[in-house]
Amino acid sequence: MRFNTLNDWLAWQETLHPKAIDLGLERVREVATRLGLLEPKHVVISVAGTNGKGSSVAMLEAILASAGLRVGAYTSPHLWSYNERIRIDRQPVDDAVLVASFARIDAARDEISLSYFEFGTLAALDILQRAGVDVAVLEVGLGGRLDAVNIVDAECALVTGIGIDHVEWLGPDRESIGREKAGIFRGGRPAVCSDPQPPASLREVARVCGATWYGLGEQFGYVRTGEVWDWWGPNLRLDGLPLPALLGPFQLQNAAGVVMALQALGAQLPVTVQALQAGLRAARVAGRFTVVPGPFETIFDVAHNPHAASALAAALAARPCSGRTLAVCGMLADKDAAGVAAALAEQVQCWYLGGLSGARGQSAQELAARLGLASMQRRLYPDLAAAYAAACADACAGDRIVVFGSFHTIAELLPPGL
Question: What is the pTM of this model?
Fold first, then answer.
């Protein structure tokens, strides 16, 4: 074995491949073939999209677990611990399981170079197969067509909301990005989309490849009535479902897509209405509109692109406070900061900007210039801890603080376990 600790394996993986992101399936598929990972005995659900993937995976996990199935999941990135990326029965795997899997992958790859993400994807497939799960829910890391997760043919593909992000790899507009996301569709299998206004390219790819298209507002939909909601789909209606435990009005469209995916797989994954209700109530994802009560309310959200920022703004508007909304924000330099600021401008009264370290990080001064907040109240700090401390010191009764901008921002400021 090359290394004995998880941290040593991860540090080495970061240096192994010349590119941090190297889209393409040839190398990772060859290693998966050597490991016997391309034809899993369990059901596979792949989840792609710009925003809403993590929430949709969490709902699928919770519902399927409530149905008594052994569920595996793979997501990225993590907040506090790499182990969070691979879960069995909603619990992260331990270091020893990951180390053993990395060693198997290293031995199988021989001369083939793998990226950090490719190593992790192969580990997820390996670990979930060895665990004997009934179903694996796999979140696509970036795009779809050329993402490492796509080496596996999923029984059902779910695409969530499509926005503009990662344009250097996926294209400059929603049609281009949608076409890449639709690369996870397979002929003769369900292709579910929970974006209420999907790019036409999604339907077109489904048609060309022969997938069975299910679009929100077309083949299925939902209506909220007070504190419950009704779902309708092909030859079925479910009334009086509980609202998802995950907060924010956008979670209903995620939940509707999840229900459609499960209905499409009903013959392979039988789920009762009771399990569906229990799972909707039980699903949790840290950093997706996570509300922490206190002298003033604090909300943590990983929103880091304009599409997610618009959803965050809608969620804040649906949960009004009597005072001000103070934003604590740190963002990576390659994100559309101006678009994020524009989406949240009407909801935020004062901005507290903190610098993010790392290769893709930026200072508060650089972020301020990209946000375009010259005419708005803003305060700049060397790091996020200082920005958050200042916002907490300034907040009064009735105010709230919203922390957002990056997974790194949430990981630094949200206490683990919440």
Answer: 0.92
